[in-house]
Amino acid sequence: MKKILAIVMAMTMGLGLVACGGGNDTSGSTAEAPAGDAAETGDVADAETPEAPAAENTASGEAQYTVGICQLVEHDALDAATKGFMDALNEELGEGTVEFEMQNAQNDPNTCSTIINGFVSGGVDLILANATPALQAAQAGTNEIPILGTSVTEYGVALGIDGFDGTVGGNISGTSDLAPLDEQAKMLQELFPDAKNVGLIFCTAEANSQYQVDEVQKTLEGLGYTCKQYGFSDSNDLTSVVTTATSESDVIYVPTDNTAANNAELIDNVCRPAKVPVVAGEEGICAGCGVATLSISYYDLGVATGKMAAKVLTGEANISEMPIEYAPQFTKKYTPAICEELGIEIPADYEAIAE
Question: Burial, 267: exposed, middle or buried (Cβ in 10 Å; 0-12, 13-18, 19+)?
C-alpha cells in the first residue's frame, strides 16, 4: 500500500508540473505577440522617437487628428467659413484623416468658454475659433494647443495686443475678415452722395465692431458726413436702438458684427419701412437688411484657414511664426429686392447677391 500511495503521489506531482509549465509557455507566447505586431507596424520605433502629439498611428499608417471647432453662432458667414475650413483640411490631409468636433455657442461668449474647456480636457490636436468671442475664449483656455481663428476682424484688438504687427505668436494664428474700411466708406459716398447723417449701428459686446465703426467714422467725416454711433448690447435692445438711429440718420452703416448678422431681419423690419438704406460690412448682413456691401468670400477665408491648419498639424509650419492671413479679394455686391423697393440705382460694377 505504501508503494502504491507513493506512485500515485508522484504521478499527481508530475501532472501539476506539466500544467504549470504549459501555463508559463502560453503567457510567454502571448507577451511576445504585441512586440512582433509593433515591429511590423512601426510602433516600437515611434516609442523610441516620439512623434508630434497631434498624430496617432493606425494600422494603415495614416495620421489621425481631432480638431475642435467652436463657432459663436449660426449664420451664413460663419457657416461658410466653417465649411471652407473642413473642406480644405479634408482635401489637404485626406478624407477621414481628421475627426471634427463641431460645437455652436448660440451667440453666448460664456458657452464659448465651456466648449473650449471641453476641447482642452479632451486633448484635441487643434482648435478652430470661429469669430472673436470664440478666439478670446480659446486664448484664455489654453496656451499649448494650437489655435486658429477665422472670421475675426482685427487680432490686435480682439486679443488686447498693443502695437500688433501681424503675427500673434505663441499658439495662435488665423485669418481675418477685415475688408478695407475706407473703401466701404467710399462706397457709401458713391451710392449716397447727398446724404448728410450716417448712423453707425454695432454691438457693444464685440470689440472688433467698435474698431470698425471708429475707422469708418474717421473716413466718413473726412468725406463731409456727420456720423453718430448707436451701440446695442444684445438682441433685446436692438430694435429700440435701430429705431432711434433711423429717425436721426439718412443712411445706416452696420459693420461685420455677429449679433447684427444673427438679427438682420430685426434691423430690416425697422429700416426698410422707414426708407432708410443700410450699407453692410459683409454679405450675410447685406442679404438680410442691406442695400450694398464690399465683402469677402467667407468660404474662401475658411479654405485659407484649413490650409494653415494642415501645415500646423503635419509640422510643416510653426504656428507661433505664422502671420495672420487676409482675404485676397473683395467684391461690391447689392441686394436686388431691397434696392428695388427703396428705389436705389446700383452701378453696373456691383454683383447681385443671389436670393
Answer: buried
0.70 exceeded by pTM: yes
pLDDT single digits (tens) 268-303: 999 999 999 999 999 999 999 999 999 899 999 999
Amino acid at 235: S
Whole-number Å distance between alpha carbons of 119 and 167: 24
Q: Say if residues 272 and 341 touch (Cβ distance below 8 Å).
A: yes
| CA–CA gap between residue 191 and residue 209 (Å, rounded) | 23
Distances in Å between the Cα of 303 and the Cα atoms of 54, 150, 166, 174, 309 are 21, 10, 20, 11, 10
DSSP 60: T
Query: What is the per-residue pLDDT across 210-244, written as a single tens digit (0 to 9) for each?
Result: 999 999 999 999 999 999 999 999 989 999 999 99
Separation of alpha carbons 336 and 288, rounded Å: 11
Closest CA to 157 of 200, 206, 191, 95: 206
Within 42-73, residue ranges assigned H as helices are 43-48
HSE of 153, CA atoms in CB hemisphere, 13 A: 21
Q: How far apart are the first and last CA of the chain?
A: 106
Half-sphere exposure of residue 200: CA atoms within 13 angstroms, side-chain side: 24
Phi, psi of 321 (to 5 degrees): -105, 0
